[in-house]
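Data availability (excerpt). The following record was deposited with the supplementary files.
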Amino acid sequence: MVASVISRLSDTKTFTQDSLPFCPTREFVNLRHGGPYKNQSNFGYLRVSAEDGGNELHSDIKIYRGRNEGNVGCEVSGSVALRQIIAGDKKPFSVYVPGLSGIPQVEEYRTESIVRRGVASGEANLYLRNVMFLIKEKNRLNELIKLVRNIFPAISLFVSFDPVKDLHIDVRVSVTGMSGKRIPLELVGTGVQQALQILSYVVLFRPFVLLLDEPDSHLHPDNQGLLAKIMLAIASETETNIIATTHKLKGSKPFTEQPGLANFHL
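Predicted structure:
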């Protein structure tokens, strides 16, 4: 949310809520913990810190309700370099992956800006095929297949869309290799869909922070452990840091056994 706010901040300190790339509610003021944002009180404060070549960088962010109804106020001070990372529009600082609740039977092609905004607004289920098509267009489909094969070893993905002839993006999945039966994406198991959703976000957006809401909820217990191991590999081999919630301690065991990781249990 904070990254979304400051990504819209240039020389102005206030802007409309509708201009935010991500906001989980129509009433922005209620996002503040404890009480709603106000114009002269009930501010929100956040300090983001990082280390660069042994130097400590800090960026202080203040969020409040704008003077006019529906406006968001934001003031940022501190490291300009850190602010540019947090507010970058090419590579999002953070990406939230909500729980998967099924996908539509068909999906029309959308531009990348619409896909990014739709994904950020919590409508991720409506854009999975578009996300996978963008991955193909950026020549990263093999990277996605390689990651997914850590969970489903024989999986192959086939993504096609002709902007001249097609209205809908076609995505088919084979779980028995390249020559196996190709199943429409909406007919494969929810566990496969969920793994594709999570790993597609990693491949397409390459965020600094990936927020996962119960990523293992539709996976078989054995595959839950495999997904956890992949997440650990991604966190150690890329710039992406992962924050995940789960009710399944068995699936999270690889995390609890990994030194240097913070684990919280409620």
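Summary of structural features: The first strand starts at residue 14 and ends at 16.
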